[in-house]
Amino acid sequence: MRRTGPILIAVIGILALIVDFYPHLRLPELGGGGMRQIETKLGLDLEGGLRVEYQAQPAGGKTPDAAALNVIRTIIENRVNGTGVAEPVVTTQGTDRVVVELPGVSDPEAVRSLVRQTGRLDFVPIPSDVTTPPAEGTLINPSYKALFSGDQVSSATIGTDQTGQRTVDFVLKTEGTKLFADHTAKHVNEFFAITLDQKVISAPRINQSIPTGQVQISAGGAGGFALKEATNLVNILKFGSLPFPIAELSNENISATLGAEFLRRSLLAGGIGILLVLIFMVVHYRLPGVIAAGALIYYSLVMLAIFRLVPVTLTLAGIAGFVLSIGMAVDANILIFERSKEELRVGKSLPAAIEAGFSRAWNSILDSNVSSLITAMILFLFGSSTIRGFALVLIIGVLVSMFSAITVTRTILRVVVRQDWAKKAALYGVTDTEFVARPTGRAALRGEARGRV
Question: How many alpha carbons lie under 13 Å from residue 453 in its C-beta half-sphere?
């Protein structure tokens, strides 16, 4: 690691600079969906976006209540979240309204279409005399009756078949399993449509009887489903069925809720805080503090590159998580440097003191960071979209800060302490009075004296 560490640090740093500052960088979309522009995505509070309002419609002689409206809100939020890290804001209003706000959308019609799809999911048999399956996106023949609806889907995932082609796998509940087993046993080689709001999403052929309720859908062509198509179908199967149909009432572009001046002041406050931390590190820890400040700048560049690559949608809460993770990275350096100073005061040589400082502080650093990761993970799994954004940034920040505090700082210090000019106790915040030199053995042969470490 001592040989590969500097190379790894340099490679990651160069890649981060390219991602951060090259203005026209584009990367392939996963699943062969074209090229994606690498950019920093901002949330609704910082950039604005699209606002769409829906109304839950009565159905089957029933009207939506608060519980049903909350289910609709959860399904819509899950559907939108399933497409990537977008931090949508989905709220309920009154007794029948759901409002969806999406930050920084580049294609409003595509987003409205995605949310509008969260209607009724049905599994519809196709008559045996139909030799060509209905095309995707077309309306299903109204005379075809649904066998069961999407509430019979227990789970859905992306899988692979025996040939390695990408498939969509889903599991049915008890009633759906029985109905599908009876139907597939009698209608092998016939088509079976999956529809959403009466539009065909997929119309696979029944190749064999399916008695267990474990269904696998495959697609023609090399590789099976494209990843984007498979992900969309899985999201529809998991989150497509609503307790009541919904109708779009309005849609509009909205401006940033905080405004440019608020953002400028927030970034200024964060920048001042980080600058004060760097000044403290340099003044109090001298040379190690300078190295730690460089490692924090390196950490910031890597974090920004990750935000642009994922991409992570940055809100004010996310920026707060980023600043907090910088504080945690500094905390790790403080533990290491204080332990190294203690080792210097008892007479260890400089390289030995530095190594002991890192190794003996590691357990404390690991415990504190694991505790932070557990807390952030709980927030991400159970929090609202805004809280999840904060938690996601904090999780990434903690992981990267451990790399910068341990690997980057340690690697640079190992190089620096070998230099003659760096072997002065004062450069490490240890005075001649505090330092007790014990020049015995090889240390005496090197002529290390009081005030030199």
Answer: 31
Is 398 within 8 Å of 328 (Cβ atoms)? yes
How many CB atoms sit inside 10 A of residue 363's CB?
A: 10
* Bond from prior residue into 243 cis (ω within 30 degrees of 0): no
**How far apart are the C-alpha atoms of 52 and 79, rounded to whole Å?**
15
Contacts (Cβ under 8 Å, ≥6 apart) of 434? 345, 425
- Give the global pTM: 0.61
Q: Which DSSP string corresponds to 173-203?
A: -HHHHHHHHHHHHH-TT-BEEEEETTEEEE-
Q: What is the pLDDT of residues 171-200, one digit of tens each?
A: 999 999 999 999 999 999 999 998 877 888
| Contact assessment for residue 233 and residue 217, using Cβ atoms and an 8 Å cutoff | yes
Q: Taking each helix axis from N to C terminus, what angle separates 350-382 and 385-402, rounded to the nearest 10 degrees?
A: 160
Q: What was the pLDDT predicted at 419?
A: 84
Q: How far apart are CA 96 and CA 80, in angstroms?
A: 20
Report pLDDT digits (tens) over 356-382.
888 888 888 888 889 989 998 998 888
What 296-300 contacts at long range (C-beta under 8 Å, 24+ apart), as own/partner pairs, is 296/326, 296/329, 296/330, 296/404, 298/9, 298/13, 298/404, 298/408, 299/326, 299/329, 299/400, 299/401, 299/403, 299/404, 299/408, 300/326
Give the whole-angstrom CA distance, residue 193 versus residue 175: 18
Q: Which amino acid is at 135?
A: A
